[in-house]
Amino acid sequence: MRKTHYFLFLFIFINTLISAQTSQEQLLINTYNRPSQSLNGTWNYIVDPYENGYYNYRRDAFDQQENPDVSAYFLNSKPKDRSDRIEYDFDTSKEIQVPGDWNTQDDKLYYYEGTVWYKKSFDYTKTDINNRVFIYFGAVNYIAEVYLNGKKIGMHEGGFTPFNFDVTNLINEKDNFLIVKVDNKRKKEAVPTLNTDWWNYGGITRDVKIIETPNTYIQDYFIQLNPDNNKQIKGYVKLKGEDIANKKVQINIPELKIKTQVTTNIEGIAPLEIKLKKVTYWSDTNPYLYNVTIKASQDELTDQIGFRTIKTSGQDILLNGENIYLKGISIHEENPIKGGRANTLEDAKLLLTWAKELGCNYVRLAHYPHNEHMLRLADQMGILVWEENPVYWTIQWENEATYQNAKNQLTEVISRDKNRAATIIWSMANETPVSEARTEFLIKLMKVAKELDPTRLISAALEQNTNKNNSNVMHIEDPFADYVDILSFNQYIGWYVGLPERSKEIIWNIKQDKPVLISEFGAGAKQGLHGDKLDRWTEEYQEYLYVETLNMIDKIPQLRGFSPWILVDFKSPRRHLPVIQDEWNRKGLISSEGKKKKAFFVLKDFYDKK
Ligand code: GCB
């Protein structure tokens, strides 16, 4: 397909994808910079393991009925008189903070997986009577059924991506009540599936806000450098609303003295090509961001956008045409110090500042899309990012609904972050067992990602194989390796396979002519536990493993970076060893109390010398 058609195809494709999969509206882009009224703060909640507020006693869902019974929790019913029987009451129920997971806010919910109802009451005054009003959720884990003033406004599946609903016709000036049924039960057919190595934090885990836009508004845009011409911005702006055809759209980048006007087609889409003369390219050493303003109809939106190219050439990764080595670390979205899911700018600062201290120019955000603060901050700090879809381990490869779900989550994260310079890699999956159905599933996802975003690189954390005749010779034998731009794999020699000295014997025989990233290696260590380098769980063992692994992988000719497992200890229900683990995966270079372990300095030293 010719590149010009490519971008036109791309937005049509995005729209069809998002509206086909879920009942929410198409995702509003850059809500980060839109004026909003926050619905964060204190909400009331009801724990409902039997889903009593959702089904009647014949197990019919109330929200499928025309006149639901007063027992439906989303009605927020109140007794009409002293004889009336209503068996719930949000206003006298307990309080919880949003954003936040429920596991770390209520001891009784530490292990809970099921339904919790949330309620927030609020007033809202529109700034203009003709405007539209949206309710936007940064993320809810895992299924959200959303009701405003007793009416269902939609649902969303997937714990780590944003969604929004147009509530223009439902919102009132006074006494609105927003009710969300959140269900984090793990399911075989879900994405991720039953089995992971991280805590299944439930709840409204990211910001909730009300966004007001003019009646015709900027729903989406893609404003990035043309990967084939670094003197040109290429992309599109897309309007939605009542009057979208033949509209003038202005794109201003004052610092570059750019003022361009384009016109929308009948679908509200204005393709974009802007010539650049002199531009400071965004990079890890100079994370330069431009203010870009988009104006259309009554709407105006500003974003901070960096311009850079990212490509591969043979075995090299090229940032702005120059070789780059990715000095990375893997990160889970957790702040162990405050406990639970990370979700604020302060949390992002803590994690990314630690990564910088370690000498990183790159992070792998595992194993699902992280909150937008992380990406915005990475843009500002000059940290390159690998973003990942939660296709982890044993997904139901043959289940079409599972595929649609994975595709939808991937689409949402690409929609949100496609203008972030920091994001350079979309990862399709982590450690998925090779089979025909799985490879087909991943190839389809890869095509979706490439179609949505032709400017970034595709990868997936694969696994290595041992040579049949010589167990010391390792290679990558995975049909999906043919489809990735960067060949990445996790390897645990010295931890799950042998002891650290085993690394000395290993020979990597990687045949693929592609840049290689090692997406994980690591060892568990309890901070403060000391001993011999062969005493498992000591800082010395972890330190030893890092020394040996770094020696080993540095000899891989195609190696262009790596992201050890992991920056900080994180909660995992798979880790039961008392005193040592206590439900923490201890592979962090920093402990759950924020203390650096010895291996931190081994890696820092390696990165400082690179
Ligand atoms: C892996 C997984 C990661 C686990 C890690 C471990 O290979 O990708 O999610 O947490 O190993 O610690 O075992």
From TrEMBL:
Glycoside hydrolase family 2 immunoglobulin-like beta-sandwich domain location: 217-308
One GO BP annotation of this record: carbohydrate metabolic process
InterPro entries found in the cross-reference section: Beta-gal/glucu_dom_sf, Galactose-bd-like_sf, GH, Glyco_hydro_2, Glyco_hydro_2_cat, Glyco_hydro_2_N, Ig-like_fold, Ig-like_GH2
Domain (Glycosyl hydrolases family 2 sugar binding) ranges: 77-214
Domain Glycoside hydrolase family 2 catalytic: 313-608
Tagged with keyword Signal: yes
Species annotation: Lutibacter flavus
Record has Signal as a keyword: yes
Family: Belongs to the glycosyl hydrolase 2 family.
Protein name according to UniProt: Beta-glucuronidase
UniProt KW keywords: Glycosidase, Hydrolase, Signal
Any one GO molecular function term: beta-glucuronidase activity
